[in-house]
User: Fold this.
Amino acid sequence: AAPRGDIARAIDYAERAGAQAMDQLAYEEAAELYERALEVLELSDEPDETRRCALLLALGGAQMSAGNFAASRQSYDRAATSARALGDTDRLVGAAMGIALLSEAGVVDEALVELLDHALEAVGPEPSAERASLLSAKAQELYWVDAQGLSAPLTAEALEIARQVGDPQALATALQRQLFIPIEPDSQKERLAIADEMLELG
Assistant:
């Protein structure tokens, strides 16, 4: 194994360079740098699992931005496994939400639904932006099973929580989901109100 100090410096350098590449929209380069950091991490006698999880999340994000969706899903899956082993709720939520962004329309991803349930259990029942976002993601998946019976209640809960905690991003996501929920013909005013609220959020 390489000296611990050299390994730590090499990982730090690759991670910083990856973040800089992301800022410059050089997504493929960022992905390569995060992969390099992970490779160097494995040279350690006892690789830091928390560091590995963080790098996998960063790699998944870079791969998604680069349009490499299959590789991104693999990275996020690995990050989710790592986060669950660590008991790291924040990173578990990050992995679940990353996979949710890769979800295919018209197809229910059962593995993702299971992961979202684990993440929801981890964040707990208290209102939070994370819970609202996870509920919206689950509503998105279950939309293809039963939009009105399964997806609608989750979306309504996500909206309520997002408004309660005052998180604009979580609220925008929940509002977007609400737009897809089937409504009665005489409820067009509700849909217009949702669209107006989304515009106000920017």
Notes: The chain has a mean pLDDT of 90. The longest helix spans residues 129-165. The radius of gyration is 19 Å. The chain has nine helices and no strands.
